[in-house]
Design brief:
This protein is mostly helical. It is built from nine helices and two strands, in the order ββααααααααα. The protein folds into two domains: 1-49, no CATH class; 51-223, no CATH class. Strands 1-2 form a two-stranded antiparallel ribbon. A hairpin with a 6-residue loop joins strand 1 and strand 2. The longest helix is centred in the last third of the chain and has 20 residues, at 180-199. The mean pLDDT is 93.
């Protein structure tokens, strides 16, 4: 329809038709854009159609940001990422390892791919059925990849368990019902604190407000520390 209006998935502004080369905000590749917003956000065709694990891997491998909140929000804004889903279980370790890579930490080869594969094994709804939120467990996954921990490790195994435990406690303090976005934020906050305390690694902690409140029917609004009124 001629008068139909489309909106940018990144910032919510109106998209305008164009025909020029722009860099994709996800994969960073340059291609001809058909539409963009006033802020020149552009998502290429491959990224528009990407499956969640493909999108997360490609975005994280090519991102230069050191802020895991910023990267998590970018990925969660993509239409392929539902409001609630097990995708958040492997999103957390992926963005944490990306930030660690970008501040100069040495990671194992294919670290982000490894984290995604591990996180995908955590089923839906474990926060209620196991008492283990997958996003919180994702912090443990990130630590185990960072430290190369195995079940035979000493300090590395203990630190991975500690990281998961602290993250799960921070999520439990959010109360219910569950919100996968808030769990991601709480997990990242816990991980940033844990990394600085135990590894002297400092990641950016400035938080971009939650842009998903209006999409969550169960949003706790003012009872959630990440609620800023929605968009």
């Amino acid at each position: 329809m001629e008068n139909e209006v489309f909106y940018c998935t990144i910032c919510g502004k109106i998209l305008h038709p164009i025909s020029e080369e722009l860099k994709c905000i996800y994969c960073k590749e340059i291609s001809i854009a058909d539409y963009t917003c006033d802020d020149h956000h552009f998502v290429c065709e491959n990224c528009r159609l990407a499956l969640p694990d493909e999108l997360i891997l490609k975005t994280c491998e090519r991102s230069e940001t050191k802020n895991p909140y910023e990267l998590a929000n970018l990925i969660m804004r993509h239409p392929a990422i539902p409001m609630h889903s097990p995708i958040h279980h492997y999103l957390v370790p992926a963005v944490l390892l990306t930030a660690l890579k970008n501040v100069g930490c040495e990671l194992p080869r294919r670290a982000i791919n490894i984290a995604i594969k591990r996180g995908k094994k955590i089923p839906y709804g474990t926060c209620g059925s196991w008492g283990v939120c997958g996003a919180g467990a994702g912090v443990g996954i990130a630590m185990s990849v960072l430290t190369r921990a195995t079940y035979k490790s000493d300090t590395e195994r203990a630190r991975s368990l500690d990281a998961s435990g602290e993250s799960l406690i921070s999520i439990s303090k959010l109360g219910g019902p569950r919100c996968c976005k808030a769990s991601v934020y709480a997990s990242i906050k816990s991980a940033i604190s844990f990394l600085e305390k135990n590894f002297k690694i400092k990641l950016p902690s400035n938080f971009e407000e939650c842009p998903f409140s209006s999409y969550n029917e169960e949003c706790k609004k003012d009872k959630c520390e990440y609620y800023k009124g929605g968009h």
